Amino acid sequence: TWSWNGTTNANSIAVGGKTAKELCSERGNGWRLPTQKELMQAYITGSYFNLTNPSHYFWSATEYSASSAWYVGLTNGTTYDYGKSTSAGYVRCVR
């Protein structure tokens, strides 16, 4: 699990404080953090069943405000805004 902005979660700090977006973009070849809409589409189509740990909440690239971003639960389609530095969530990269 990672904090969105890479500041507080132990896993984030262990890799040099990288943000969720950086974790994806550093993979190269067009990898990126999905938008809230893309994660919701994965829930709607049921494609989340193909993911590892689909029962968890995933960070989206969509910001809610300067201090929070959207977090999407793939097993029930819920979305919440969570603090970028206070919450930890899973990161799923797409391209």
Could you characterize what this model shows?
The protein starts with 9 loop residues before the first helix and ends in a 12-residue tail after the last strand. A three-stranded antiparallel sheet has the order 1-2-3. It contains three helices and three strands, in the order αααβββ. By secondary structure, the chain is α+β, with helices and mostly antiparallel strands. Strand 2 and strand 3 form a beta hairpin.
List keywords for this structure.
alpha+beta, 3-stranded antiparallel sheet, 95 residues
Structural class: alpha+beta
How much beta, percentage-wise? 15-25%
Mean pLDDT across the residues is 84
Main sheet specs: 3 strands, antiparallel
Distance between the first and last residues' Cα: 20 Å
Uncertain spans:
none
How large is the count of helical segments?
3
The percent of residues in helical segments reads 10-25%
Radius of gyration: 12 Å
Strand sequence of the main sheet, in spatial order? 1-2-3
| DSSP summary, beta strand count | 3
Task: Write the topology of this structure.
Layout: H1 10-14, H2 20-25, H3 36-45, E1 57-63, E2 68-73, E3 79-83
Antiparallel strand pairs: 1-2, 2-3
Task: Give a nutshell description of this structure.
This protein is α+β, with helices and mostly antiparallel strands. It contains three helices and three strands. It has a three-stranded antiparallel sheet.
